User: Fold this.
Amino acid sequence: MDLNLGTEVWVVDKKGAVIATAANHEYCEGNYLETSELKKMQSGSISVYKGKSQYFQEPVIRVIIPIIQEERVIGAIVLYSPIEGINKALASLSQLVLTAGIISLAIAFLIGIILSRRLSRPILTITEASTLIAKGQKQVTVPTDTSIEEINQLGRTFNDMSSKVEANEERMKEFVANVSHELRSPLTSIKGFVEALIDNKGKTPEAQRRFLTIINNETDRLTHLVNDLLILSRSEEEIVLEAEDIELKDFIENVLAGFQSRAEENSINTEVISKDNFISLKIDLNSLHQIIANLVDNALKYSPQGGNVSISLVESEEMISISVRDSGLGIPERDLPHIWDRFYRVDKDRSRETGGTGLGLAIVKQLTEKNGGQVEAESVLGKGSIFSVRFPKQ
Assistant:
């Protein structure tokens, strides 16, 4: 220790007399500890002192470690180390730490630049792709095979969003085209018969009445179309649904009562079928009313004179099902997957004759899904169709 650390090592007896030192410090033999040092040693506790000493010209750090035998202090080991040497060691250590810190910061900076470039390159690609989409370009995708999984996930999300944006744009174009087509037909008819009246082609009261009846019917078609478009538009908005407990059988019977005069005109029998007298469903009341009304309206339109329309309620452990059955001509199997699409008609000519807009079932699907439900349709040609909506029990 003396040679390697530059620390003088003394061994003193119980009286504080130096009895041994390192070979090159023999001059210290015969010296005694100072009175304050001797007291601390004899107390049996280790003491540390920093300052001047009578035996050294420069400040030192002194450590006295008592030697105890059979619970008695029989001497001590005393270490003296110059403060200047310790300060030099600390300065050297500080320099080493500072150098290591600077080197570490430089390495971290270089690694940061490399990583930031690896991260910024694919992010810049996604930014450029977003700009292209904003300018109207279609089928824009970004790579998803980088070495960073998080960037790949971001790329997959972007590509999915890009596909949905394109699909929504196509749907919007198709929707506008369909609306334009649906509006053009009744407007053309109305304009034609109004011009006929202006040109005095309806010379007899019977002809005038026939022209005006057609104009009235076409106006009703326009009114129904606009109303359905408004309902469909509202159902797509982020509106807050106010769910409440509704006793289904009574509720559906009340909705059905609004169609009773229309059913009687065509001698169509209507009924509500339920094994349980009380089935409660928690749902938005306005949504349920529109769903039932559209399904009943659709069933009455396509049921023949003297036909039947029934509404069945079935409750299971997890779901509540409402099914509307008609006795119409049925729907071809190839058309079943499309009947929930907007403006889709199985028989376009017949649909226009009955005043259909092609939006009733689309509204049913939209409102059902907004309330957490599902739609389903079954049909057998010549025997009729069943349209069902199912909602989870809450």
Notes: The mean pLDDT is 81. The longest helix spans residues 83-134. The longest strand covers residues 56-69.
